[in-house]
Amino acid sequence: MVVAARLEPRVQAVVSLSSPEPVFGGLDVAAAVHQLQVPVLFVAAEDDQPFADYARTLYAQASPADKQLLVLPRGGHGTSLPKLPGVRAALTTFFRAHT
Fold first, then answer.
1. What is the pLDDT of residues 12-46, one digit of tens each?
2. Domains of the chain, start order
3. Are 18 and 78 in contact (CB under 8 A)?
4. Model pTM?
5. Burial of 64 by CB count in 10 Å (0-12 exposed, 13-18 middle, 19+ buried)?
């Protein structure tokens, strides 16, 4: 998120899997997500706390009008999420709409 908010030329869209805490490792992710000007998709699993709550927080702070939040009841963390059929479908739809 931090890099995507700063890159020139801009990225076309951003996907966040198991969002980090709003300030992580000295990086202000909350400020970066507020600066984003591209579509963003947040994906998390409720059984992966506190990351589901971080995704909700960052979603609420994100500036783009085109933003989506997908929180599944379960699914694990990060790169395990795209293995789930519902997430795969959401990612495919998001990529097709923004690339």
1. 999 999 999 999 889 999 999 999 999 999 999 99
2. 2-98 (3.40.50.1820)
3. yes
4. 0.93
5. middle
